[in-house]
Task: structure prediction
Amino acid sequence: MKQIRVAVCVLGLMGLLAANVAMAQGPPMAKPGPEQQRLHYFVGQWKHEGEMKPGPYGPGGKFTSTEECRMIGDFFLTSHSKSTGPMGPMEDQFTMGYDPKLKAYTYDDFSSMGLHEKSTGNVSGKVWTWTNDNEMGGKTMKGKFVLTEVSPTSYTYKFDMSTDDGKTWSNMMTGTATKVK
Result:
């Protein structure tokens, strides 16, 4: 009888040990999918040139910027950019990823002007479309950023804004980006 109790205790301890080892290892590591692989298009150094239209985001005029994009693992793209334009010098830091629950790309941008912009997006072929809602002067404005991959080393983009919940859109910016490295 004593041997059975000892065996039961030993088996019980082994079960607890196995459970603790399994919990210490945690859940299986996530693996990047094709959505995350699409973000690799943007990795590298880019040069931007474009034009802003006068509007709620400031005066109109030409702008230039340089941008360094890299992946964090195979899941998130980060970017740091420096630009000069109608409002003077500015810096931005953004992170882009894919949220499988939303089935959408996510974009969080932080600027040296104190702005934090959040957008969601999707990609169809070579066209990325990002949308967001911003409040300016007590009014909600919708934003739409459309980026078109022209080649592995260049893309074009435009930013449109709507003050009537997306019924009509006004172009606020156009630009091109060329990969430097």
